[in-house]
Amino acid sequence: MTVAMLIIAFLKHFECLVLFPSLQSGWFQLSEGSDTVSVIFKSKGGEIVPGGHVIAKHGCWSLLKGGVVANFSSPFEILFKSKDSTVEIWADNVSLQPFTKRQWRSLQDASIQRERKRKVRFQVTSINGTAMKGAKVIARSANLSFPFGCGMNHYILTNRDYQSWFLSRFKFTTFTNEMKWYSTEIKQGQENYTIPDAMLNFTKENCISVRGHNIFWDNPKQQPEWVKSLSTKDLEAAAKRRIESVVTRYKGELIAWDVMNENLHFHFYEDNFGENASAMAYAKAYELDPKPKMFLNEYNTIEQSGDEAASPFNYMKKLQEILSFPGVAGMSAAIGLQAHFAAGQPNLAYMRSGLDLLATTGLPIWLTEVSVAPSPNQAEYLEEVLREAYSHPGVEGIIMFSGPAQAGFNDTTLADENFKNTPAGDVVDKLIREWGTGPHTCTADDRGFVDISLHHGDYDVTVTNPLTHSSRTLSLSVKKDFLQETIPVK
Ligand SMILES: *[C@@H]1O[C@H](CO)[C@@H](O)[C@H](O)[C@H]1NC(C)=O
Ligand SMILES: *[C@@H]1O[C@H](CO)[C@@H](O)[C@H](O)[C@H]1NC(C)=O
Ligand SMILES: *[C@@H]1O[C@H](CO)[C@@H](O)[C@H](O)[C@H]1NC(C)=O
Ligand SMILES: *[C@@H]1O[C@H](CO)[C@@H](O)[C@H](O)[C@H]1NC(C)=O
Ligand SMILES: *[C@@H]1O[C@H](CO)[C@@H](O)[C@H](O)[C@H]1NC(C)=O
Ligand SMILES: *[C@@H]1O[C@H](CO)[C@@H](O)[C@H](O)[C@H]1NC(C)=O
Ligand SMILES: *[C@@H]1O[C@H](CO)[C@@H](O)[C@H](O)[C@H]1NC(C)=O
Ligand SMILES: *[C@@H]1O[C@H](CO)[C@@H](O)[C@H](O)[C@H]1NC(C)=O
Fold this sequence. Notes:
Elements: E1 4-7, E2 20-30, E3 34-43, E4 48-57, E5 62-70, E6 76-82, E7 89-98, H1 101-116, E8 117-124, E9 136-144, E10 148-150, H2 160-167, E11 172-174, H3 181-184, H4 194-205, E12 209-217, H5 232-249, E13 256-261, H6 268-273, H7 277-288, E14 293-298, H8 312-323, E15 333-337, E16 340-341, H9 348-359, E17 365-372, H10 378-391, E18 395-400, E19 403-404, E20 413-415, H11 423-437, E21 440-443, E22 449-455, E23 457-464, E24 471-478, E25 486-489
Parallel strand pairs: 8-25, 10-18, 11-12, 12-13, 13-14, 14-15, 15-17, 16-17, 17-18, 19-20
Antiparallel strand pairs: 1-6, 2-5, 2-7, 3-4, 3-6, 8-22, 9-21, 9-23, 23-24
Helix pairs in contact: 1-10, 5-7, 8-9, 9-10, 10-11
This protein binds 2-acetamido-2-deoxy-beta-D-glucopyranose (8 copies).
């Protein structure tokens, strides 16, 4: 591959002395044609970190957003490249904005305050209207609005410790493998839903919402063995039976479907049925079960800046392709980002710029399978990724693919063989508390006022008279558009 490069002179010797995230943006076009332009950060030592991609064209400017979390202690170069060395890359308004880790965190906190919380003021008085100084107000969350959940596997059916571990933490889940075609129809024509049925019984009994995962997987290796050797005609019949079987069976029971898993990286069904294979699967799933959100579900879009195939830009292209297909009109489409992070410092700047771009679609974004590979800093990196997602206004849900060692979760293990928290498990429990489970306790001031900042959700609020110790409890629903300034409590 020959590379056309344009070095932006004024950024060439950008000094950077600490580990820091930087957001990068710029407008690009090509002297002719259309091609992917990538930004690359290159250290003096030759280390190369890709930082973002855009499809640039001749005749109109395209915005490239990206970034890097660098730990280069020497000047580095910022390069822009396209595959076609015969065209010139034109750039305008290129900027690089560095942040310290502390600045980054305080921006996240401010965004969480804005997007996920409301300040609530109570005024506590006696029946005769005098302020009740010293009244104790406790807000306990009954039901938080933001879905922060965890994958689950078949061990949940038999392992009581796993059950209580899960139930004390999560209300949202995805079955990691049990609904997949290779699990439900191991032998052609012999469907067996015993395990996912039983898991769904368990989640129903415990009021846990389930994402359906997945109807098809576009990776040729991830098919049931017998499917791999079918003729196109037989595959067509088998695929039709598959989608009708699984979607009809769980119709109305799930909050989402991953319809065609990983169709940016792979194209098993496109190879067999033509370019509209994914779109046709979405249209069929929507026809059979119209309510759930219908997700694309892809890896490396926000977690791996070097994977151009699944870049946020290409993700949006695929999405538009599917959404322009006639049969999907009216479907509630959604963006699924697996978020399997490798070991090492996650590139939060790339992650944020990708979420920014995807959020311009206005569609809900979920992180669907969050994991961070084992390393000495695993817990710290997991926390960075989860905070970045939770603080982004476009993100509407997070599911981790993680769990206790006894259930075989050996990548992002949250509890060891004795159900003692790992450091990553401590991070998750800390965030569950911080993101709203409370309880939040406050005392009324001279004027009977109590100010609490609460995450969106439903709360039971108990107010106790400091003298008589009598108390009363009220229900409170805190929403984004929650406007009442002061809640009187007599
Ligand atoms: C800095 O980057 C180098 C090369 O990628 C890596 O080996 C090193 O662990 C990084 N240091 C930190 C503190 O992340
Ligand atoms: C670059 O910024 C200038 C000044 O804000 C603006 O006039 C111009 O349109 C921008 N260029 C592009 C390609 O957006
Ligand atoms: C109002 O009621 C409180 C407690 O019942 C009492 O301590 C206070 O004196 C009353 N104030 C007036 C103005 O009646
Ligand atoms: C919790 O809240 C969600 C969304 O606000 C609602 O759909 C659900 O029914 C609530 N669950 C309970 C147990 O109140
Ligand atoms: C279906 O799966 C269950 C659980 O793995 C197994 O016990 C049962 O024997 C299977 N049924 C058939 C007919 O194979
Ligand atoms: C699920 O629950 C239903 C109703 O309680 C029961 O009839 C069924 O046998 C259960 N299925 C499994 C697989 O546990
Ligand atoms: C795929 O669908 C589009 C409409 O979204 C249509 O224009 C195109 O002809 C279809 N391609 C094939 C091969 O059927
Ligand atoms: C983790 O579990 C998977 C699946 O059970 C297995 O293939 C893999 O070897 C395990 N990895 C480690 C590091 O134990």
